[in-house]
Amino acid sequence: MDVKTLPSSIFNFSAKFCNELDKSKSVVSSPLSAEFLLAILTLGSEDPAHSELLTSLGISADDQIRSSFKSLSQNLLSIKGVTLKVANKVYIKDGDYDLNEDLKKDAVSVFNAAFEKVNFSQSKAAADLINKWVENQTNSKIKDLISADSLNDDTRLVLVNAIYFKGTWKKQFDPANTMDQPFFITSSETVDVPMMYKEDNYYYGESRALNAQLLRLGYVGKEASMLIVLPNEVEGLNGVLSKLAEGHDLLKELDDMHNIKVQVTIPKFKIETEIDLAELLPKLGIKSIFNQSDNGLTKILNKPEGLFVSKAVQKAFIEVNEEGAEAAAASGMVMMMRCAPMPPVRFDANKPFLFVLMDSGTPIFYGTHRKRSL
Fold first, then answer.
1. Which residue, of 25, 131, 209, 267, has the fewest CB within 10 Å?
2. Serpin domain location, by residue (predicted)?
3. How many CA atoms lie within 13 A of 114 on its CB side?
4. How many CB atoms lie within 10 A of CB 125?
5. What SS3 class is residue 140?
6. Beta carbons within 10 angstroms of residue 258's beta carbon
7. How far apart are CA 339 and CA 240, in angstroms?
8. In this predicted structure, what is the pLDDT of residue 220?
9. Beta-carbon contacts of residue 267 (< 8 Å; ≥ 6 apart)
């Protein structure tokens, strides 16, 4: 596997991830952020955790993680025209604790991770230190990722990934054309939201399998874009999410899109979401890392101490307006010692839809817009 085939695995993981999120409200997530942490854990584990993680990530071997994630990290850092920051950091208990030597080499060379020693027994100071770093990496969009009560003297390390994106539409919307219009929450319930409008040439497609329209809005630089999957039915979004989670190839749908004139109406929106990964990941088959015994997390520390993941959380944010989009996400995992040419097509996003913010082919943020945003 290389960086050309990794996006397919990331799309599959992202679809399964998003399908497990709250379906009663708008949500935003970065499955990719979680995948960076899971990939690091994979390289530091043996079975049963190791095989679970590889299967869930859609990757067959450690060497493929090393080659594909290294290429992915380099590609993300080189995207033109937008601001995209991807940062990984490992906080290790102070004293003579450190990562296993092999894992530390991988963390640096593959994930470009930074390291810092922390006194976890001073839980509030440790949480403040970690949260300040996350806040700095995400332009102050993600705050208070780690709570002080999740840290104590048994904490051995905290893995954190932060992703921040800000881009300007290649074809910006004119604020003068933005006006309140009905957005269908269900087939019988609407709410007025500010809807943006523009007629221009966009990549557009129609999917019979998903029973949906697809629109791709490009950002300055031509590499990053937002894909919107708009079900034809007002209450069709859950069906789209289910089909994608079952393996429908969204990348193939992208290849079938054409650049044509489209009358686009989409809502301005702002979404913030907090996700308990300790609840979500087991639904994707990742269970062992949360077990307090015989989980396989044996190649992480330089000391023969059993570890388990005691806390795993992600916070994500996105704002879409006439100028473009701003998005941020951070995922953290706390590891404890075991104790103990036609007329213009209309694309009217006035009902629940899926959005995917991506670079040339890798999904970075994945979410749904269902009702009035923040």
1. 209
2. 11-372
3. 12
4. 14
5. coil
6. 9
7. 43
8. 92
9. 183, 193, 194, 195, 196, 320, 349, 350, 369, 373
∠ at Cα 282 (278, 287), nearest 5°?
95
Question: What is the rounded CA–CA span in Å between residue 114 and residue 105?
Answer: 11
pLDDT in tens, 126-183: 999 999 999 999 999 999 999 999 999 999 999 999 999 999 999 999 999 999 999 9
DSSP 8-class letter at 359: S
Q: Which residue has the tokens 């955790």?
A: 49
Rounded distance between C-alpha atoms, residue 6 and residue 158, angstroms:
26
Pair 300, 157: CB distance under 8 Å: yes
* Side-chain-facing half-sphere of 350: CA atoms under 13 Å: 19
| 294 contact partners, CB below 8 Å, separation of at least 6 | 48
CA distances from 236 to 28, 188, 251, 353 (A): 18, 14, 20, 9
Mind listing the pLDDT tens digit for each residue in 201-231? 999 999 999 999 999 999 998 889 999 999 9
Residue with tokens 């929450």, as numbered in its chain: 185
Q: Tokens 């007002």 label which residue?
A: 234
Mean of the per-residue pLDDT values of the chain? 92
Asked if 40 and 70 touch (Cβ cutoff 8 Å), the reply is no
